[in-house]
Design brief:
The chain has twelve helices and 14 strands. It is α/β, with parallel strands linked by helices. The protein binds zinc ion (ZN).
């Protein structure tokens, strides 16, 4: 039985956090000087874990360990990039925690029939360039050559930036993997929310990564004198907005696997003594299930129309954005649950309200994710923290998952099943 050591593991995170352009938190943007400086360190660590290393055209750092019996491989990965003044664990946890396990395997001569590819995706956050998930999209052949021409705020193109860190952007097409070579995708990530802490659990199995849709609502009332207009003769657009917000919030609160927010409000004329005649507001709805999102949107729309009739206002709403989520592979979820049980922890499942690389990778293979508890649910912030004990538990769970991994050698049906967007 391999012994995983807290200090050995946490030392990786401390060292990685030194590659930051800010003193507070970690700022390691895609293709930055810090990214460039971190690459040789990451490669050295991967080599110490017995992996063959390379950097691909989109700046992903890849470590590969061939299987004993099969050419098929499990892709394990997460992103190396951070937000500005982000934490020490968002993204890089999913690279360094598996890397530590692979280093232990190397030390103890543990090998599997299947191959393992560990990927540190260059870009997931999309902070520097007007693109997101570039690293994972490239593996699916979903980064077009035209994307290389996008520029950052200083006018540096993605192509120039990639060349700067030592990648060869002309080789973009070579990033694409063959579906038939891939068993699946696994990522461990901090939860970035408070649920595991509330449940007093170190880890949880992710059922799905959320889909998002956004709506705009326009409310037209009638401006009038706030002193002379009787209360029962007003067409107050802001009052209607308040009722819509309350109604939407009630829907979000009572529905499982659904969250939402009215985050933006524009009020006209926005004056102390005038009845508001115009309010524009946004409604963002998140759920991994499109059916759940659409049902909520329909209920809110029906409420808006009944309100318009009742209060003699005009209310129009329209959807202006929708991105479908990704369902995690049911079979891999089950295997993760078994790995958790094997380590005497109660299995618990939850969906991810934040986006992750799996959103892109679902086009290539079945995906799976494990969440690690983080302190007070804080993330995208320099105060992001995890408990070393929890990280060791996650290491043991991942170890069990990798040792027991069952995979279908054909994969065809599994992949199709994982593409379905059924409710979770
Ligand atoms: Zn992340």
């Amino acid at each position: 039985m391999i012994q995983y050591n807290e200090n050995e593991l946490m030392a990786y995170f401390e060292k990685a956090a030194e590659f930051s352009s800010t003193k507070r938190g970690v700022t390691r943007l895609y293709c930055s000087q810090e990214h460039k400086n971190f690459i040789p360190v990451l490669k050295k660590w991967m080599q110490e874990a017995g992996l063959q290393t390379k950097i691909d055209a989109i700046g992903n750092v890849i470590g590969f360990k061939p299987g004993k019996k099969s050419n098929k491989k499990l892709i394990i990965g997460s992103h190396q990039d951070t937000v500005i003044e982000g934490g020490k664990y968002d993204g890089i946890l999913g690279v360094l925690l598996p890397l530590y396990i692979l280093q232990k395997y190397h030390e103890h001569g543990v090998e599997f029939d299947y191959g393992i590819e560990l990927v540190a995706f260059g870009d997931e956050e999309g902070v520097r360039f007007p693109e997101t998930l570039l690293g994972s999209k490239a593996l699916c052949g979903n980064v077009d050559k035209t994307a290389l021409q996008v520029v950052d705020k200083d006018g540096i193109s993605l192509k120039e930036a990639l060349t700067f860190i030592g990648a060869n952007p002309d080789d973009l097409a070579a990033c694409k993997r063959k579906q038939s070579d891939i068993i699946g995708y696994f990522e461990v990530h901090i939860e970035q929310g408070p649920i595991l802490e509330q449940k007093n659990l170190p880890v949880g199995v992710v059922t799905a990564i959320t889909g998002i849709q956004r709506h705009r609502v326009f409310i037209q009332g009638q401006a009038n004198h706030a002193g002379t207009t009787p209360m029962d003769m007003r067409k107050d657009a802001l009052l209607a907005a308040a009722q819509i917000i309350t109604f939407a919030n009630a829907i979000f609160t009572k529905t499982d696997n659904l969250v939402g927010v009215v985050g933006e409000l524009n009020v006209q004329p926005n004056a102390v003594n005038v009845i508001p005649d115009r309010v524009d507001l946004t409604i963002e709805i998140r759920s991994p299930s499109p059916e759940i999102r659409h049902k909520a949107a329909k209920e809110i729309e029906a409420f808006c129309q009944s309100l318009a009739t009742k209060q003699n206002l005009e209310i129009q709403s329209s959807k202006n954005y929708e991105m479908n989520g990704a369902i995690c592979d049911k079979d891999l979820q089950k295997q993760l649950e078994e790995a958790i049980q094997e380590n005497q922890i109660t299995p618990f499942s939850l969906f991810s309200g934040a986006g992750h690389d799996g959103l892109a990778i679902q086009a290539l293979s079945p995906i799976s994710m494990l969440f690690l508890r983080c302190e007070a649910g804080i993330s995208h912030h320099f105060k992001e923290e995890i408990k070393p004990d929890d990280a060791i538990i996650a290491a043991k769970v991942i170890d069990s998952f990798l040792r027991n991994l069952q995979y279908d050698s054909t994969q065809k049906n599994r992949h199709l099943a994982s593409q379905q967007t059924a409710p979770v």
